[in-house]
């Protein structure tokens, strides 16, 4: 286990990683953030040190940069120490985005984080990447304190994992949003959709493959119902296009010869 | 409460409705199905009567047609009784699809059903439609035996509800399928995606609006990451098109002026 860890950033990922680490007796010694107020909010919860000045950055064994992708290079080049491991938590940046003479790594927690939501940390997959075996062991031990799911990865695979997350979270959430809009427009309570949203996710989580779980007019190639639904949408609108394209994709998945 | 109910069909909806009704002491007296074997399988579980012959159809107060949309008209015209209520369970057919001299109605349970999956019936929204107030009361009482969520609807609204279900279930499931394909191709365990799938649904179920819950590169208008992801997909492939279109839709939702 690294003796001392510093968290850089005070956003959603920093918030949850700090909590997860402190709950599991990882020695987080400081929060660094460019906006002092946010650093104070996060550090204050746990009564640990915080700063917005690089000159006050404490010496630690591991620095975890939890900022946005864009800020990683900029902040990383200001870390003045060499005998340490600096990692970022991004799914889409190579570890070469870290600019400094220290050792480098990736520490990617694969989940969607918002400060408002409590999370079960022990199920979150962590994907780690390092330059050498010793650091791999360090990150592995660190992540295992939090979660039972820790895996080695390289940049190529991490990108694929990140993109998979976009499909099952970002895009899925946008479909929920579209349904929410339809409900609002037609005076339907969105709460009525929740048992279906839950069952759709539960099916997959409990082990039915998405291929097997598919139901509905597109799968049955039921053009009659598809036409009815399309007639409810404004022709050539965003929703019309998405409905058509996904329907087409489902139909092709099950009726290969079409 | 109707004294006697007959279920017509032996598919997923019939399977679950029969179970839900019998669990709640609704008097289901018979299963009718064109394929006797499937009727036997379902009726046999509960030791109730079954048949594949219209001439053997028992007299009942309510007949619930749980067949596919296409079969509704055909089967409904063979019901030889007039002093009864005949309903279908379709989200996308008008009650005029029922062809007979009996009273007509809609009894739409808004959930995705598969025989393999146990369901909590008491949370399933039921949408009912009838020709008169007395039948409305009958169907309301019947549905309330099963679920706490029972609503009147008309055909127009039922179609919108059905389409909303396509967005949050059918389309969402297809995105899970696409992610599953990506995982298989790149030797990533699909199990790694499950905590994220769960959290994405849970957020919404527990009351965060999809608009507020949205995260990711498209929302941030992070073209750099979007380009990286697109570079992982075959240009102009089905996946490339869907990725582009949904990304575009998310970006427009949050950056209206683009």
Which SSEs are present, and which pair or pack?
The structure is a homodimer of 258-residue chains.
Chain A: E1 5-8, H1 12-23, E2 28-32, H2 36-46, E3 49-51, E4 62-65, H3 69-76, E5 85-88, E6 103-109, E7 126-130, H4 133-146, E8 150-152, H5 155-185, H6 194-205, H7 210-213, H8 217-220, H9 223-232, H10 238-254
Parallel strand pairs in A: 1-2, 1-4, 2-3, 4-5, 5-6, 7-8
Antiparallel strand pairs in A: 6-7
Walk me through what this model shows.
- The structure is a homodimer of 258-residue chains.
- Chain A is α/β, with parallel strands linked by helices and 258 residues long.
- Chain A has 2 domains: 5-153, Rossmann fold, CATH 3.40.50; 159-254, ProC-like, C-terminal domain (N-(1-d-carboxylethyl)-l-norvaline Dehydrogenase, domain 2), CATH 1.10.1040.20.
- Helices cover 48% and strands 14% of the residues of chain A.
- Chain A contains 10 helices and 8 strands.
- The first copy, chain A, has helices at 12-23, 36-46, 69-76, 133-146, 155-185, 194-205, 210-213, 217-220, 223-232, 238-254; strands spanning 5-8, 28-32, 49-51, 62-65, 85-88, 103-109, 126-130, 150-152.
- Chain A has an 8-stranded mixed sheet, with helices on both faces.
- In chain A, helix 4 links the parallel strand 7 (126-130) and strand 8.
- The longest helix of chain A has 31 residues, at 155-185.
- In chain A, 47% of the residues are buried.
- The model of chain A has no long low-confidence stretch (mean pLDDT 96).
- Chains A and B meet through helix 5, helix 6, helix 7, helix 8 and helix 9 of A and helix 5, helix 6, helix 7, helix 8 and helix 9 of B.
């Amino acid at each position: 286990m690294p003796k001392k860890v510093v968290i850089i950033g005070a956003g959603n990922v920093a918030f949850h990683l700090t909590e997860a680490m402190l709950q599991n007796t990882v020695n987080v010694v400081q929060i660094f953030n460019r906006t002092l107020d946010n650093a104070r909010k996060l550090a204050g919860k746990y009564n640990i040190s915080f700063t917005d000045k690089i000159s006050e950055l404490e010496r630690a064994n591991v620095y975890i940069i939890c900022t946005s992708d864009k800020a990683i290079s900029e902040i990383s080049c200001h870390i003045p120490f060499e005998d340490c491991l600096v990692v970022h938590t991004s799914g889409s940046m190579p570890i070469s985005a870290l600019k400094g003479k220290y050792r480098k790594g990736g520490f990617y927690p694969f989940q969607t984080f918002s400060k408002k939501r409590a999370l079960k940390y022990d199920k979150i997959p962590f994907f780690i990447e390092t330059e050498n075996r010793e650091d791999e062991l360090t990150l592995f031990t660190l992540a295992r304190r939090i979660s039972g799911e820790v895996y080695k990865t390289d940049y190529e695979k991490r990108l694929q994992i990140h993109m998979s997350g976009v499909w099952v979270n970002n895009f899925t959430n946008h479909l929920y949003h579209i349904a929410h809009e339809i409900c609002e427009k037609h005076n339907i309570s969105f709460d009525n959709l929740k048992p279906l949203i839950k069952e759709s996710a539960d099916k997959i989580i409990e082990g039915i493959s998405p291929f097997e779980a598919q139901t509905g007019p597109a799968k049955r190639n039921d053009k009659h119902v598809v036409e009815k639904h399309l007639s409810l949408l404004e022709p050539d609108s965003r929703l019309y296009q998405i409905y058509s394209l996904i329907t087409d994709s489902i139909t092709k998945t099950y009726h290969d010869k079409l």
